[in-house]
Automatic annotation (TrEMBL):
Protein name according to UniProt: Exonuclease domain-containing protein
One Gene Ontology term of the molecular function aspect: nucleic acid binding
Chain intervals with Low complexity compositional bias: 443-452
Database matches in Pfam families: Exo_endo_phos (PF03372), RNase_T (PF00929)
Provenance organism: Emiliania huxleyi
Length: 883
C-alpha cells in the first residue's frame, strides 16, 4: 500500500445505486460465441478477484489521511464485512480470489461463504491472499509464496485441471522489477508443478497487480518478457522507464491474454480519493488462450450513477466496502479440455523450453555483440561463473574472491553503453537459466515421474472436496493420568526431537479449535482418508458419550523414525464405542484398503514421552507399578476433533444422535446471544454507565446442528459520558472514533428489533430467547438506560437465559462459573479474540452454547422482568418461579 495525497475533497452524498449491481457480467468487446450443442460440453469457469482491504491497512490509511473522503463508519470491518460477503455470494463465481485477507478475516469469511472451500496463504508477515472454490472443483496442489498463492484445481465436470495464481504484487509504484520477478517466480513454480506433480490444461492469473494495463507487468505477461523502453506511470509524477534488470528477467512461454485491456481509458479499480486523486486499473485477470477463451467479463461499475458515486465519495465508502473494485470473467474451455489436461505439452510449456545448449548459444551471440574484445568476453564469463559449492560456510579467501568477482562485474557493466549493459544483463540471465535447465530432469525422466504420479493425482482430484485427509483426536483432560507416567521417565533418558527442548509432551490440553497446535491429546483416528460425510454419519450413530478405559501404559518402538532407535511411552485406551465408530466409518471400504488406525494397540493412545533405545528396559521396569495403578481408569468422550492442518481445517464432531440440538425438542427456534459493553473507568464507577456496544449472534436451533443465521454489531454514541476513558478503550478495544461515528442507543435498538424481525425471530412470542453471560445485561443494563423506550421493545427483551446458571445446572454443579473464561476452560476451549470486546465475547459464548447443545442441553429461560412492577422474576430449575 502506498500513500497518495488529495488536494480537494468533494462533498459526500448518499449512494442510491446498489453496490450489488456491479455483479452483472457483460460481454463488452468480448465475443460470446454460442455454446456447443453437445450436452457433454465442459461448464464455464467463472472467476472473481477482489482486494477487500485488510482492516489493519484500513485503520492505518484512514489515520494517515489516505482516505480523505471516507468516514469512520466506512472503515469499520463490522460494516464492510457483510457487504463484502453479500457481493461475493451474489457473484456465484466458481473461484473467488481475495487479497489482503488476514487470518481472522479468513476464519470469519469461510463459514459465511456457504458452498465454498477455501485456502489461506501461509505466513503472518502481512495480510495474505485467500482462494475459495465451489464443490465441483477440488484442490490438487498449492504453492505459497510471499506475494502469490498458486493452486491447481480439478474440475470434475469438465474433467480438466486449471492452475490459478492469486496475486498481490509489490505495491510501491516504482517497484516494477520486483513485480515482474514475483510473477516470474510464480509462473516457474506452476510450470514445474505442471510437468511433475499437478498436470493442468490451462492457467489463470488474477489479483491486485499494483500495475496498470500498460506497465511492465502487462508487458511481461503479454510478450513473455519486458521489452526495452517499457515505462511505468501509475502513482508517479509522469512516467518512468523500468530498470534494465526487468528486461533481463527469465521469459515465460505461456500464451497469456488480458480480460481488461486498453479499450476503455476511463476504467479503474482503485480510487481512494475519488476524482480528485489518482485512480486507475490495478486489478487484472489474465488467462492462457490455448485452452481457455473469455466469453464475458465483469463490469467494474454498474452504471454512470455508480461511477459518479465512486468518484465523488472515494473508496472505501457507501459505494464500495474496499478501496478496490472486484474484477472477474467467465472463461470457457476450448477443444478437448480433458485430453489437454493429460497431455504433458499442455500441462505447462515444457516441450518448448530451450535446452541449455540453446540458451548458452544465445548468450554467446549477445556477448559477442556487447563486448568486442575476446579478453573482455573471457573476463565476463569468469566473473559471472559461480564458484563451486562447498559444505558449510565458505572460507575467508573464498568470500574475498566472490566480492572481487562481483566488483569487477559491476565495473564492466558501468563501462558499457546502455545498449551493451542491457545485453550483458540478458547474458547473465541466460547463463543462470542454462545452469538451471542443466540441473533439471530430462524429458524422459519427467515423463517417467509424471506417469508414476498420474494415477495418484487423478484419484486425489476425483475425491469430493469434503473427503480430505487428516486425523481425529479427543480433547480430554488426562493430565493427572499422564503426569503419573511422565514422572517415571528420567530426563536423561529422553530423545530430543529436532527443534524441541524436551522429549516430553506438554501437559496442557491441545486446544480443539486450532490446527497444528501442540499439547496433550488422545489420538482416536489416525490417517483419516475420505472422512467427509461417512465420518460424520458414523459419529452421529456412535454411543454418546463414549467411554475410554486405560488398557496399558506402553513402551513401543516408534516405527516412523528409522535412523535411530526411539521408544514411545504412552497410554493406550480401549473403547468399544470407538471401535464401532471406526468400523462404521470404514465399512464401505474393502478390508485391504483400510488405512492405518493407530501405530499402537487399542482404540486410542496418548504419546507422553520419547525415550532413547538404551533406556527402554529401564523405562519398562519403572512403569510396571504405575501400569498396575492406572489400567482400568475410565474417562468419557463427548466429541472428537477432526483436523486437516494442510487446509487449515478444524471441526468439532459430536458423538451420538442425541448429542445434536435437532434431537432435543427445543421450545425456541432461535437463541440470540447478547453481551453489552458499557462506559467504564479504571478506579471509579460512572453514573450512569451507558451502553456503547450492542453485539448479538442469532443461532437457529431448528436444524440438526445449531446454525449461525446472522450477526448484529453496532457501536452506540453515549450521551452522558461521550468521551471514552483510556481504560475503557484498552479493555474493550472500542475507539473514540467508532463512538463518535455511531448512532444513539434508541436508534441502534430500533435497528436491533428490525434485524430480529427480518430473520423471523419475532414471528411469535416464543420464537427467540436471549442468552447472556449473567442477568446484568437485560436485568440492569438495558432496563435502566434512559435512552430506550422500553414500552416499544418486544416482550422477548424481558426474558433471558443466564448461561452461567444454565451451565452449572446442566453439569450438576451448585456453584455457577465466575464468567465466560471459566466456562471455556471447563470445556477445554481456548478464548478467542479480545476478552471484553462485545462481539468477540458473543462468539465465545456461542461456542459454549454449541458445546452444551451437543451434550443434549435444552434451552430455557432463567429470568424475566415482571411486566407490572418492573421487578425481576427468576425461574427455578423445576419450572416454578419465585420473585
Amino acid at each position: 500500500r502506498t500513500s497518495r495525497s488529495c488536494s480537494h475533497v468533494q462533498p459526500r452524498r448518499t449512494m442510491s445505486t446498489s453496490f450489488l449491481e456491479a455483479a452483472v457480467l457483460r460481454a463488452a468487446d468480448v465475443q460470446a460465441a454460442p455454446r456447443a450443442a453437445d450436452a457433454q460440453a465442459a461448464p464455464d469457469l467463472t472467476i472473481l478477484s477482489w482486494n477487500i482491504l485488510a482492516q489493519r491497512w484500513a485503520d492505518k490509511c484512514f489515520a494517515d489521511g489516505e482516505y480523505p473522503l471516507a468516514t469512520a463508519h466506512d472503515i469499520l470491518w463490522s460494516n464492510r464485512c457483510p457487504r463484502i460477503v453479500a457481493e461475493l455470494l451474489a457473484s456465484t463465481a466458481d473461484v473467488i480470489l481475495l487479497q489482503e485477507v488476514d487470518a481472522a478475516a479468513f476464519n470469519e469469511l469461510l463459514p459465511k461463504l456457504t458452498g465454498y472451500d477455501g485456502l489461506h496463504q501461509k505466513g503472518n508477515t502481512h495480510p495474505c491472499n485467500a482462494t475459495f472454490w465451489k464443490p465441483r472443483l477440488s484442490l490438487v496442489w498449492a504453492q505459497h509464496r510471499s506475494r502469490t498463492l498458486s493452486t491447481v484445481l480439478h474440475d470434475g465436470q469438465a474433467k480438466a485441471s486449471v492452475a490459478i495464481v492469486n496475486c498481490h504484487l509489490e505495491g510501491c509504484p516504482s517497484a516494477s522489477l520486483k513485480r515482474v520477478q514475483q510473477l516470474q517466480s510464480a509462473l516457474e513454480g506452476v510450470r514445474h508443478a505442471g510437468s511433475l506433480q499437478a498436470p493442468h490444461a490451462s492457467l489463470v492469473l488474477a489479483g491486485d497487480f499494483n500495475s496498470t494495463a500498460e506497465g511492465a507487468v502487462a508487458a511481461y505477461l503479454s510478450f513473455g518478457s519486458v521489452p526495452q523502453g517499457t515505462r511505468e506511470a501509475w502513482g508517479l509524477a509522469g512516467s518512468t522507464a523500468v530498470p534494465d534488470e526487468a528486461c533481463a528477467v527469465a521469459a515465460h512461454a505461456y500464451q497469456l491474454q488480458s480480460v481488461y485491456g486498453l479499450d476503455d481509458p476511463r476504467a479503474f479499480s482503485f480510487a481512494p480519493s475519488g476524482r480528485s486523486g489518482w485512480h486507475g486499473l490495478l486489478d487484472h485477470v489474465w488467462y492462457d488462450g490455448r485452452h481457455l477463451r473469455c466469453v464475458s467479463r465483469r463490469q467494474l461499475v454498474a452504471s454512470e450513477a455508480h461511477l459518479d458515486a465512486l468518484l465523488t465519495m472515494g473508496m472505501p465508502s457507501a459505494a464500495s466496502p474496499s478501496d478496490h473494485l472486484p474484477c472477474g470473467a467467465t472463461l470457457r474451455w476450448s477443444g478437448d479440455a480433458a485430453t489437454a489436461a493429460c497431455a504433458p505439452a499442455c500441462a505447462a510449456p515444457t516441450d518448448s523450453s530451450p535446452t541449455p545448449e540453446q540458451l548458452l548459444a544465445e548468450a554467446a551471440e549477445l556477448l559477442a555483440n556487447a563486448l568486442p574484445s575476446e579478453a573482455l568476453r573471457a573476463e565476463w564469463v569468469s566473473v559471472t561463473t559461480p564458484p563451486p559449492p562447498c559444505k558449510g560456510k565458505p572460507p575467508a579467501e573464498a568470500l574475498a574472491a566472490i566480492a572481487a568477482q562481483r566488483a569487477r562485474k559491476e565495473d564492466l557493466l558501468a563501462q558499457a553503453s546502455p545498449e551493451a549493459r542491457a545485453m550483458l544483463l540478458r547474458v547473465q540471465s541466460l547463463q543462470k537459466e542454462a545452469r538451471k535447465a542443466a540441473s533439471r530432469p530430462t524429458a524422459e525422466q519427467q515423463r517417467a515421474k509424471q506417469q508414476a504420479t498420474q494415477a495418484k493425482v487423478q484419484k486425489k482430484a476425483a475425491a469430493k472436496a469434503a473427503d480430505i485427509a487428516g486425523w481425529c483426536f479427543a480433547p480430554l483432560d488426562i493430565a493427572e493420568l499422564a503426569s503419573a507416567a511422565q514422572e517415571a521417565v528420567d530426563d536423561h533418558w529422553l530423545w530430543h526431537r529436532a527443534g524441541r527442548q524436551s522429549g516430553k509432551t506438554p501437559l496442557e490440553p491441545m486446544p480443539s479449535s486450532a490446527t497444528k497446535a501442540a499439547g496433550l491429546h488422545v489420538t482416536v483416528l489416525l490417517r483419516v482418508h475420505e472422512c467427509g460425510a461417512r465420518l460424520r454419519a458414523a459419529c452421529a450413530a456412535a454411543q454418546q458419550p463414549a467411554t475410554l478405559t486405560v488398557s496399558d501404559v506402553f513402551v513401543e518402538r516408534v516405527e516412523r523414525i528409522t535412523d535411530e532407535e526411539v521408544w514411545c511411552v504412552g497410554l493406550a485406551f480401549a473403547s468399544p464405542a470407538i471401535r464401532a465408530l471406526r468400523d462404521a466409518w470404514l465399512a464401505p471400504l474393502p478390508r485391504e484398503e483400510w488405512p492405518t488406525h493407530c501405530p499402537y494397540a487399542g482404540e486410542g493412545h496418548a504419546s507422553l514421552a520419547y525415550v532413547r533405545g538404551e533406556y527402554r528396559d529401564a523405562a519398562e521396569r519403572r512403569l510396571a507399578p504405575i501400569r498396575a495403578r492406572l489400567v482400568g481408569a475410565a474417562i468419557t468422550l463427548p466429541h472428537v476433533v477432526f483436523q486437516d492442518p494442510r487446509h487449515g481445517l478444524c471441526e468439532q464432531i459430536p458423538l451420538g444422535r442425541q448429542a445434536r440440538s435437532g434431537s432435543v425438542r427445543q421450545d425456541y427456534r432461535f437463541v440470540a446471544i447478547l453481551d453489552f459493553e458499557k462506559t467504564c473507568e479504571r478506579d471509579a464507577v460512572l453514573s450512569p454507565q451507558e451502553i456503547i456496544e450492542v453485539p448479538t449472534l442469532l443461532l437457529d436451533l431448528s436444524s440438526e446442528a445449531p446454525r449461525l443465521v446472522s450477526e448484529f454489531h453496532e457501536h452506540v454514541r453515549p450521551t452522558r459520558h461521550p468521551q471514552l476513558s483510556a481504560f475503557c478503550t484498552e479493555l474493550t478495544g472500542i475507539t473514540q472514533a467508532q463512538i463518535d461515528a455511531a448512532a444513539p442507543l434508541s436508534t441502534v435498538m430500533d435497528r436491533h428489533v428490525a434485524w430480529l424481525e427480518r430473520h423471523g425471530a419475532l414471528a411469535d412470542g416464543r420464537n427467540v430467547l436471549f442468552v447472556t453471560c449473567g442477568d446484568y445485561d437485560l436485568k440492569r443494563s438495558l432496563a435502566e438506560d434512559p435512552n430506550v423506550d422500553h414500552d416499544a421493545l418486544p416482550a422477548c427483551y424481558g426474558r433471558w437465559c443466564n448461561l452461567k446458571r444454565a451451565f452449572a445446572a446442566h453439569r450438576g454443579k451448585k456453584r455457577q462459573p465466575a464468567g465466560m473464561a471459566e466456562m471455556l476452560d471447563a470445556l477445554g476451549l481456548p478464548l478467542e479474540g479480545q476478552h471484553h470486546s462485545g462481539i468477540d465475547d458473543c462468539r465465545n459464548l456461542a461456542r459454549v452454547v454449541r458445546s452444551l447443545l451437543a451434550q443434549g442441553w435444552k434451552v430455557a429461560p432463567t429470568g424475566q422482568r415482571a411486566a407490572s412492577a418492573g421487578g425481576v422474576t427468576c425461574m427455578s430449575e423445576s419450572g416454578c418461579s419465585s420473585v
